[in-house]
C-alpha cells in the first residue's frame, strides 16, 4: 500500500512532496482521536527498549535525524509515529533561505537522496519559540545547530553560541553540526584547531548534553582526533555520520547522478562507511561517550548491527522516506525480538556487544 502512495508522491517535485507529507503528519497528530489511534497502531514494543543515554530517558532507540523538521514545526508528531526521539534543524542563529531550488533529488534505484538544502530555516529564535510551547508527553527533542552562511569562519564560535543559548533551555540535547557539505567551509570546522573553541563556546551556553555530528568523508586519523577532542571537552557523544559527497557504487546511471549536481548523498550508499566509522569510534571511546549511528539504516538487521557495533541510539531520515509510516515500528519490534532471542534483559547490554565477544 505504501509503495503505491510513494509512487504517487514521487510524481511531485521532492521538496513539494516533503512539505505535503509533513503537513499531513502534523494534521493527523494534532487531532486527539487520530493521534491516539496512530500511537496505538505505530507504537513500539513498550518498555523493552527504554534506555537512559547521557542522562536523557529515551523510550526507544530509533529517532528521526535532523533535516526533516527544520523549524520545530512538528515536535508533537514523532511520538505517535513510533520514534524514540527526534532532532530538529539544522537551525542557524539567523534565518536564511538556503540554496536555490531545485535542491533535493531522489535516486529511487539506490533508495537514496541527494540534497543541497543549505540550512534553510527560520532561525534559532523562531525554533526556540516553538520548542517552548511543545506539549508534554512527547519524545526527547534534540536541537541540531549549524553556522549561518553569511557568518565568517572567524566568527563561527559566536554564531553557534547564539543558537545554543536560544535553543538549549528548550531542548533535551544539542548537536553541533560541522559536517554538512552544503554550507561553504563548514566541514573545515571539523579540524580540531577550529572545532575546539567552537565546542567550548557551545558548552559555555548550555546545561543540556552536547554532541558533535561528523561527516563520513573524514579520514580515519581525523575521526580519532575528533573523538579525542570530544573526550577532552566532556561532550556527551558523537553523531556519526552525516551525508557524503562521494558517489561511489550507485545503481543510478552516472549521467542522472551528475544532473543532480552537488550535495550530500544519504541512504544505503553511505551505510558501509557509517558502520565503519561507528566501529572505529567505539574502539576509540566506547563506554566513555554515547554514539548515535545514522546513515543508511533501512532494515532491522542493519539497526541491530549498529547496536552491536556500539550505537546507543540510531537515527534515520531517508529510510523513513522510503520505508513509510510503519518503518519505525518495524525497526523497534525487530530490535526487541533480537534482544529476547539473544537473552539480553535490556538494550544497554547489547550496545557494543560485538567488541566484547558477546554478539
The oligomeric status of these chains comes to: single chain
Mean pLDDT: 95
Give the helix/strand class.
alpha/beta
* Number of helices in the DSSP assignment: 13
Which radius of gyration do the C-alpha atoms yield? Answer: 19 Å
Strand proportion, as a percent range, falls in 15-25%
- From the spread of the alpha carbons, the general shape counts as globular
Helical coverage, percent range: 25-40%
Low-confidence segments, given as residue ranges, are: none
Order of helices and strands: HHHEEEEEEHEHEHEHEHEHEHEHHH
Strand order of the largest sheet: 3-4-7-8-9-10-12-13
> Largest sheet, if any?
8 strands, parallel, barrel
Number of strands: 13
N- to C-terminal separation?
Answer: 35 Å
How would you sum up this structure, described in words?
With 359 residues, the protein is of the alpha/beta class. Helix content is 39%, strand content 15%. The protein contains 13 helices and 13 strands. It has helices at residues 2-9, 14-30, 32-42, 124-132, 156-167, 192-203, 220-233, 254-260, 271-285, 300-309, 318-323, 327-342, 347-350; strands at 51-53, 56-58, 62-64, 85-91, 104-107, 112-115, 141-145, 173-177, 210-214, 237-240, 264-266, 290-294, 313-316. The chain has an eight-stranded parallel barrel, surrounded by six helices. It has a three-stranded antiparallel beta sheet with strand order 5-6-11. The two termini are 35 Å apart.
Amino acid at each position: 500500500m505504501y509503495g503505491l502512495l510513494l509512487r504517487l508522491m514521487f510524481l511531485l517535485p521532492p521538496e513539494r512532496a516533503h512539505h505535503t507529507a509533513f503537513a499531513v503528519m502534523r494534521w493527523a497528530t494534532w487531532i486527539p482521536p487520530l493521534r491516539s489511534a496512530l500511537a496505538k497502531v505505530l507504537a513500539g514494543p513498550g518498555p523493552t527498549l527504554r534506555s537512559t543515554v547521557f542522562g536523557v530517558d529515551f523510550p526507544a532507540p530509533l529517532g528521526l535525524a535532523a533535516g526533516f523538521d527544520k523549524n520545530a514545526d512538528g515536535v508533537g508528531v514523532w511520538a505517535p509515529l513510533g520514534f524514540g526521539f527526534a532532532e530538529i534543524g539544522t537551525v542557524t542563529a539567523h534565518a536564511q533561505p538556503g540554496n536555490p531550488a531545485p535542491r533535493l533529488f531522489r535516486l529511487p534505484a539506490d533508495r537514496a537522496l541527494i540534497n543541497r538544502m543549505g540550512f534553510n530555516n527560520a532561525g534559532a529564535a523562531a525554533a526556540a519559540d516553538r520548542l517552548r510551547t511543545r506539549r508534554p508527553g512527547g519524545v526527547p527533542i534534540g536541537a541540531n545547530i549549524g553556522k549561518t552562511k553569511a557568518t565568517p569562519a572567524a566568527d563561527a564560535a559566536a554564531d553557534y553560541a547564539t543558537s545554543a543559548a536560544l535553543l538549549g533551555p528548550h531542548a533535551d540535547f544539542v548537536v553541533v553540526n560541522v559536517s554538512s557539505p552544503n554550507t561553504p567551509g563548514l566541514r573545515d570546522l571539523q579540524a580540531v584547531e577550529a572545532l575546539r573553541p567552537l565546542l567550548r563556546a557551545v558548552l559555555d551556553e548550555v546545561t543540556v548534553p552536547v554532541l558533535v555530528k561528523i561527516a563520513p568523508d573524514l579520514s580515519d586519523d581525523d575521526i580519532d582526533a575528533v573523538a579525542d577532542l570530544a573526550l577532552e571537552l566532556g561532550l556527551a557523544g558523537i553523531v556519526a555520520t552525516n551525508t557524503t559527497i562521494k558517489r561511489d557504487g550507485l545503481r543510478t546511471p552516472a549521467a542522472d547522478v551528475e544532473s543532480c549536481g552537488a550535495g550530500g548523498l544519504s541512504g544505503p550508499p553511505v551505510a558501509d562507511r557509517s558502520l565503519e566509522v561507528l566501529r572505529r569510534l567505539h574502539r576509540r571511546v566506547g563506554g566513555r561517550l554515547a554514539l548515535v549511528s545514522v546513515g543508511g539504516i533501512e532494515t532491522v538487521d542493519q539497526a541491530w548491527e549498529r547496536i552491536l557495533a556500539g550505537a546507543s541510539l540510531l537515527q534515520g531520515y531517508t529510510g523513513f522516506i522510503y520505508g513509510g509510516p510503519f518503518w519505525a515500528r518495524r525497526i523497534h519490534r525487530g530490535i526487541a525480538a533480537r534482544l529476547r532471542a539473544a537473552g539480553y534483559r535490556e538494550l544497554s547490554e547489547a550496545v557494543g556487544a560485538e567488541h566484547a565477544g558477546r554478539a
